[in-house]
Amino acid sequence: VQLVESGGGLVQSGGSLRLSCAASGVTFSQYDLSWYRQAPGKERELVAAIARVGGATNYVESVKGRFTISRDNAKETVYLQMSRLKPDDTAVYYCKMVRYREYWGQGIQVTVSS
């Protein structure tokens, strides 16, 4: 099983980025998917999640209205569209797949400059 994240980088405050996480080696559609982030000196936190059935989503309060999680089962990819980015969004972002087991991506840096 492999999860490969892409799309991170450096962006100015107010800008946008779209993270992608491409999976291989699993039946992608059967997994619940989520994005986490970990800022320096802080614990890893759940940012957004999308269910395998029905596609229900949920978000941490601090990103509601700015971030959108989506999935493309045909492409075996989960996305995190991030808009109106703030310096507080600076972190390493990780994707996660879970059902009976969980799998994590390697993480990708997002840096928002003020």
The beta-strand count equals 11
Mean of residue pLDDT values: 96
Helix amount: under 10%
Weakly predicted, low-confidence segments:
none
* Pattern of helices and strands: EEEEEEEEEEE
Beta-strand residue fraction: over 45%
N-to-C terminal Cα separation, in Å? 37 Å
Number of helices: 0
Structural class: mainly beta
Main sheet: strands, sense, barrel: 7 strands, mixed
CA gyration radius, whole angstroms: 13 Å
What's the overall geometry?
A: globular
Q: What report would you give on this structure?
A:
Helices cover 0% and strands 54% of the residues. It starts with a strand and ends with a strand. The protein has strands at residues 2-6, 9-12, 17-24, 32-38, 45-50, 57-59, 67-72, 77-82, 91-98, 102-104, 108-113. A hairpin with a 4-residue loop joins strand 7 and strand 8. The strands form two sheets. Strands 2, 4, 5, 6, 9, 10 and 11 form a seven-stranded mixed β-sheet that branches. It is built from no helices and eleven strands. It has 114 residues and is mainly β.
